[in-house]
TrEMBL record:
Transmembrane segments: none annotated. One of its GO terms (molecular function) is NADH dehydrogenase activity. SUPFAM superfamilies: FAD/NAD(P)-binding domain. Coiled coil: none annotated. Belongs to the NADH dehydrogenase family. It holds the Pfam family Pyr_redox_2. It comes from Silvania hatchlandensis. This is FAD-dependent oxidoreductase. Residues 4-313 form the FAD/NAD(P)-binding domain. Keywords: FAD, Flavoprotein, NAD, Oxidoreductase.
Amino acid sequence: MKKQILIVGSGFSGMWAAVSAARVADIEGCNDLRITVLAPRAELRVRPRFYEEQVAGFVAPLSDLFAELNIEFIAGDAERIDAKEKIVWYRDPHGGTVPATYDRLVLATGSQTRRPPIAGLAEHAFDIDQLESAQVFEKHLDSLVTRPASAARNTVVVCGGGFTGIELATELPARLRARFGDDTETKVIVVERGAAIGGRYSEALRSTIEAASDELGVEWRLNSEIEAIDASGVTLKNGERIDALTVVWTAGVEAHPLSEQIDGERDSQGRLKVNASLQVPAQADIYATGDMAHAKTDDLGNTALMTCQHAIQLGKFAGHNAAASLLNVEPYPYRQVNYVTCLDLGAWGAVYTEGWEQEVKSVRDEAKKIKIAITNELIYPPAADRAVAFAAADPLAKFV
């Protein structure tokens, strides 16, 4: 009887976990390992690009790749995990509840925007967290040209000055000009509760973000928090009112709630704390990866971030180790010592840094070329070619 690896999620980590597991089976000449991906659709949604225009095109189909590598696919949404019986119950496209069994489970369901209980947030704020919500936001921007001209119509408030908030805010001036023309005065305001622009970044990176914001006309409200959001703007906790017909929430992410069904320790973002093999210690048959995993990247105390850079490598290690555990192959301890940051800064360009200390290596057009190479090529799925895919899925091969 075939052993079953079930991978829940087809994002960066889930897709690479499947390819990596198939690679191990191929190396070992094993035909008794069944690798299955459970996800709503056999596609990779290129989430790091959702701040850009024409978001509907940022989807890469996976059917041909899966077929080439003998990876099975189940269309459905995972709803319940029975770790004792090794069953994942999912809702199929017809609305039925169906069981999927496993010998090893790889949780790769990613993350979602954290939405705190702020008045009006659910009703009036947009987000670019998922493809559908990013499409709603894009359609809203398109609709603004039909509204009467006003300061509120021409103002966008971005709530949260983290990575996503910065990339969206610096891209928005160009997106607004494309709709209103160069002669219309527009305003982009970032509301950030921290005391500095890009507060968690290095001084050199913060200075670059600030310079780009100044040149692009992006305003920052530091030491500020949202009190309430309504149809015509936001009210800050300090009493300031900002009139805006467009408010976007980008403040914070958390692991998919499926992690709460697993017996294990979690961090403040809901990620499951895993061992070096990416197993959940209390559930040796369950591996967490990507944004579901709180994993050490090195021996210096650094942990993986909720980025595709880490999700890709986490997926390769999780898939390898899940397959290795069933085929009596030595697992690889997850390590990802190299770390880079490449932040898009809209029409200004971009900034590229290396190391956890975030030393700035290039800016503007040079960094923009690196950013485009990463987001338009490097993070996309491999070709549906067995040799090419397996070479790319090697956890020990250099990614960046």
